[in-house]
Specification:
Low-confidence stretches: none
Shape: extended
Distance between the termini: 24 Å
Number of domains: 1
Largest sheet: none
Structural class: mainly alpha
Number of strands: 0
Radius of gyration: 15 Å
Order of helices and strands: HHH
Mean pLDDT: 86
Length: 64
């Protein structure tokens, strides 16, 4: 999968992409309260897993 395919997939879901970017930026550059930070980290992990599944960057080949 090349860069253009990844970019097309991220553009096709603008709400989730912007939520991922904003969530990451807030966690990196601000210090939210502890509970809110844990909640945001959970959302960030869930979005990362969603994008990882949706993009399918790595394929596992079955061995015969």
């Amino acid at each position: 999968m090349n860069f253009k395919q990844i970019l097309d997939q991220l553009i096709s879901t603008p709400l989730l992409t912007s939520l991922f970017i904003v969530d990451f930026a807030i966690l990196m550059f601000h210090k939210p309260p502890a509970f809110f930070s844990l909640l945001m980290l959970g959302v960030l992990v869930a979005l990362a897993m969603y994008f990882g599944q949706k993009l399918g960057l790595y394929t596992i080949k079955k061995q015969a």
